[in-house]
Design goal:
This protein is mostly beta strands and 268 residues long. Helices cover 3% and strands 53% of the residues. Keywords: Signal.
Amino acid sequence: MKQALNILTAGLVALVTPTLAASDTAPLVEIEVLDGGATTRGTYMGALRLTLQDGWKTYWRSPGDAGIPPSFDWRGSRNVAALAIIWPTPEVTMTSGFQTIGYHGQLVLPIEITPNSADAPVTLAGEMQLGICKDICVPAEVSFDHQLDLQSGRNPSIAAAMANRPYSAKEAGVRSAKCKLSPTKYGMQVEAHISMPTAGGTEVAVIESGTPLAVGGATETERRGNMLVATTEFLPASNDGFALERSKLRITVLGSRHAVDIRGCTAG
């Protein structure tokens, strides 16, 4: 049965409601802005908290073989010079034979906000477009508009999400990350050789291009002793072509014990 979405916005909370049946009025997803207070760097912490209906999931910034990557429109925000999203470690699941990467239940997405003026109010406002899935997948759009409480103290939900972020390459003991770039018939193959201890279990690596002009396919991951080898092919997102820079490639390794965020690689 075809499913439609109603977008309802009230204050800080936006609700996405299915119309499967007249009695089904529970929202599929709701969003609110959390306050996290000031940092020692002169920035402010906030977060978007997404709460999904039981059994539903949404996607990480790179959703895997199938899924809808989230996107953001921050227009409406005030006194905001820069935003940095800190993604918590996602789950890897299999859906109808496809590997997908995302979150079930609830997602707290910390955001570090650099203000234009330290003495003025800061408002976080905009829209988030995302995919949500259970037996079917549907697109959703939720809105938020919240003036931050700049005097707010430490928020436990934001702190927990920050603690669940992937380790840095240094924290995870990555010794080297080398990438070989090879032209293919339609795009460019990246083969990454990462010297690092295991992250636990069957590791899954995700390679992101660092450019909106390139779209990545599935990544094959293989452990060879102390070396993790990850291979993927990037294709052009349009007819304009693209170029890859090793320094902008981002490799995330997802294991059963922890995840690792590797920024850039060298030739090899």
